[in-house]
Amino acid sequence: MMASAAQDTSSQDIERWQGLAGADLIAAVYEAYDNKFAVVSSFGTESAVLLHLTAQVDPNIPVLFLDTGKLFGETLRYKRVLIAQLGLTQVRAVKPDQDEVDAEDPKGALWLRNPNACCAMRKVRPFATALRPFSAWATGRKSYQGDARAGLSHVELDGSRVKINPLASWRRAEIEDYFDRFDLPKHPLEAEGYASVGCMPCTTPVTTGEGQRAGRWRNQDKTECGIHLPSGAAAAL
Ligand code: SF4
């Protein structure tokens, strides 16, 4: 079956996919959507698991990487290590529009005065453009990553697209076991207390007992960049 949009996917497919996880879910949706399927990755602390699962299915699956211009150098180096180790061939850097950056953030400090606008310019809008050719996409989100992600399902409808979360039901221990089993390298900042890694200005280490994403936009109400908000909400950022 080749589908071009979520509307073309039957409710039976969605129901069947909800019962799958990990590589089985990626393989099933990739079989349905072929070159209309992509994976998004931040190359953060747990990204190696989703990327390894993806490479097992097909290392040629497109991987969209949001290169905001505000990332840690460690993340960019880690990306190169994982690409080489996993044999990924289609990692695509998704960058903000330079004209927009020049107009809206000429001094590079928009994150400080309006982080939602910064995320919209550096992440949400470029990602929406990069996602246009695709009808289905996969994320590495897990339900244990905090209240905003609790109850996450394996399959969601994201506007006209199918969005899958192959690790939604995995527990933290399963992620750790997977790293050990396949000898996957850790993000270098994890050893310095960064449990989740995003842009440098908006990420801090966490202390014992804090949630995994407590270091993201610390002391702000903001918990997500916007690409995982419903399409309408993201557009309003
Ligand atoms: Fe800007 Fe921070 Fe969002 Fe990165 S995480 S795009 S620096 S507000």
Features:
9 helices; binds iron/sulfur cluster; 6 strands; 237 residues
SSE topology:
Elements: H1 11-18, H2 22-33, E1 37-41, H3 47-57, E2 63-66, H4 73-86, E3 91-94, H5 98-104, H6 110-113, H7 115-131, E4 136-138, E5 155-158, E6 161-164, H8 172-181, H9 231-235
Parallel strand pairs: 1-2, 1-4, 2-3, 4-6
Antiparallel strand pairs: 5-6
Helix pairs in contact: 2-3
The chain binds iron/sulfur cluster (SF4).
Structure description:
The protein has 237 residues and is of the alpha/beta class. It contains 9 helices and 6 strands, in the order ααβαβαβαααβββαα. It has helices spanning 11-18, 22-33, 47-57, 73-86, 98-104, 110-113, 115-131, 172-181, 231-235, and strands at 37-41, 63-66, 91-94, 136-138, 155-158, 161-164. It has a 6-stranded mixed sheet with strand order 3-2-1-4-6-5. Helix 2 packs across helix 3. Residues 232-237 have low confidence and may be disordered.
